[in-house]
Amino acid sequence: MGVINDLHGKRFGRLLVVSDSGERRDACVMWVCYCDCGKVALVRGNSLVAGLTQSCGCYLSEKSADKKNEKNGNKETEWTI
Ligand SMILES: [Zn+2]
Which of 17, 30, 41, 62 would be a feasible disulfide site paired with 21, CB 3.0-4.6 Å? Predict the structure, then answer.
């Protein structure tokens, strides 16, 4: 242990690692990540490597929104061009 993975410039799901925040939590590096949705998230290096965190949280909220729609039986409007 004690080895810092350099995740700089790597992509994990929707997150692109841009820099080391300088913060450490439980000896883990907190990385500054840009999410595809435009938000910035601070994510633990080990969560990224383990695949536990792949977005700023937007992915999960989208998923639960999808579930809600399924429950209500809503279908997206189809547009005829
Ligand atoms: Zn996001």
Answer: 30
Tens digits of residue pLDDT in 23-71: 999 889 999 999 999 999 999 999 999 999 999 999 888 888 888 777 7
How many A from CA of 60 to the centre of ligand 1? 9
Residue 50 lies in a domain: yes
Bridge partners of residue 25, in order along the sequence: 28
Considering its fold, how many domains does the chain have in total? 1
Are 17 and 38 in contact by the 8 Å Cβ rule? The answer is no
Question: Which pair of structure tokens corresponds to residue 79?
Answer: 């547009």
Query: Looking at the domain assignment, is residue 3 inside a domain?
Result: no
Asked whether residue 81 is assigned to any structural domain, the reply reads: no
Segments in 1-81 forming alpha helices (H): 45-49, 58-72
Distance from the alpha carbon of residue 81 to the mean position of ligand 1, in angstroms? 30
